[in-house]
Structure formats: structure tokens, C-alpha cells
Amino acid sequence: MALKTRNVLVSQPQPDEKSPYFGIAEKYGLNMEFRPLIKVEALSARDFRQQRISILDYSAVVFTARTAIEHFFDLCKELRVTIPETMKYFCTTDSVANYLQKYIVYRKRKIFYGLSGKTEDLMAIISKHPKETYLVPVSDTHKNDLFVLLDAKKIKYSKAVMFRTVSNDFPAGAMFDYDMLLFFSPQGIASLLKNFPDFKQDDTRIGCFGSATAKAVTEAGLRLDFEAPTAEAPSMPAALELYLKRELEAGAGKDGD
Q1: CA distance 198 to 183
Q2: Model confidence over 122-180: pLDDT tens digits?
Q3: Is 24 exposed, middle or buried (0-12, 13-18, 19+ CB in 10 A)?
Q4: Edge-to-edge strand order for the sheet containing 134-139?
Q5: How far is residue 175's CA from residue 169's CA, in Å, rounded to a whole number?
Q6: Where in the chain are the domains?
Q7: Fold of 7-37+170-256
Q8: Could you check whether 7-37+170-256 and 40-166 share the same CATH topology?
Q9: Any idea what the Cα angle at residue 214 is, between residues 114 and 178, rounded to 5°?
Q10: pLDDT tier for residue 257 given thresholds of 50, 70 and 90
């Protein structure tokens, strides 16, 4: 039984050759295209100063994505702020935490991360450190359930806008013919609808990463076919392969009827 899914759009930059996406594409005979639907622009030091936030007033930083790490340290460099070794770092996943090695000596820092990738998991760790004062780098269009949970626990924190997220526009008349779309942020959904206002989902499958992205899919009136992270699929590649396996099994069952 052949898969109905053939052409897949992964709305992220193309990863290196070690990415599991390539193994999945080869195993299932997929045409996989990597194309970000959004792009990130750095906030200038001048614009950041208007928020009247002093980074050194905080004892901990919360990172929900690699992009936040990049812009945090780049902005610190531009501001000539030296982060003390006592700073604690809280990350959504181990992969986000490992990305810190690009900027700090990992083994000499206090770094904490969630195991599931879910906001509640990260919040459980933060709750064990209630006396810290947290800084959360975000984009100008952030949508994150973390702040609701922080407020509920009366954790001291500040949101710091450090980068802007804008639509990565497609050329006029560009074709958009995919069997599956994979999204990683609510802004990706907004970009899809901006670039293709007449988009009709029909049989196009949609997968997403994170609860905020899932919420954006349903609020846009679209059907969400699968989501990560879950216990079975902690990453988007794992969720994609699980979906493809189930699609094959469902097709095989129909052939046997």
C-alpha cells in the first residue's frame, strides 16, 4: 500500500545531513522541502534599552528555543554585558540546553531542562527554584502558556523582547502544493494565511510542534492531524514517522478487507 503523503513542507531551515528527516524521507520515499515561513530579525540595542530592562538584575534566564539563545547572547555582546558564571539557565528541552555550549562553558554553569518539551514540565523545574528572578527572552509576537503558569506560581519574571518575527513572503504566483505541512510556531500559521489567503486544507495533513502552535492551527479553522511532543513522539521527526507508520497500517488494513 503506497502512502498518500508524498510531498512534505518542513517550515524550518534545512538541517545538516545528520538530521533524522533525511532518513525518514528516504525510508518512506518522500519529497521533503525545507522552507521557513517566518524569519527572525534582531532587535537593536537601542530598541532593547527602551524596555528599561537590566539583564544583570536577573539571576536566571529561561530559553524556549535556540533562536532566543542566539539573540540573547548577541544582544549581550552588543550591550557589552558580561553574564556572570552564577547565572542559571532553564530550557524547554535538552537540545535547547545543549545549544548553550555555543556561547558558554557548559559544565561550569547551572543548567536545567525539561524532559518532555512541554511547558508544564519546564514549569515544574522552575517551581523548585522559586527565589530566582527570571528573564525570558521572547519575540515581539510571542504566544506562550509559560507566562500564565509563572503568574499562577507567583514567580518573579520579566519578558524581554529581543527579536522580531516576520513573515517570510513567497514570490507572487508561487506554487504551494504539498500533501503535508509541518509547523513550529503560531507565526508560521499566520505566514501561511498571509501568503495564501485562499488556502484550503482539504486532504493536506498538518503536523505541529508545541501547544501554542497547535492552538494557532485550530484557531485558524484548520485540522490538526498530529502533534509533538508526546510520550510516543518527543520530537517532530518522531511524530512524523509515527504518523507515516499509522498511515501505512491503515492502508494495509483496508487492502485486507
Answers
A1: 18
A2: 999 999 999 999 999 998 877 678 899 999 999 999 999 999 988 888 777 777 899 99
A3: middle
A4: 38-42, 157-167, 134-139, 60-63, 88-91, 110-113
A5: 13
A6: 7-37+170-256, 40-166
A7: Rossmann fold (3.40.50)
A8: yes
A9: 120
A10: low
How far, in Å, CA of 5 to CA of 240, rounded?
Answer: 11
Grid coordinates belonging to 138: 521572547
Give SS3 for 14.
coil
- Class in CATH terms, 40-166: alpha beta
As a whole number of angstroms, the distance between CA 247 and CA 106 comes to 41
β-pairing, 134-139 with 157-167? parallel
Reported in sequence order, the residue ranges of the chain that DSSP labels E, i.e. its strands, are 7-10, 31-34, 38-42, 60-63, 88-91, 110-113, 134-139, 157-167, 180-183, 205-209, 226-228
**Nearest alpha carbon to residue 210 among 145, 127, 141:** 145
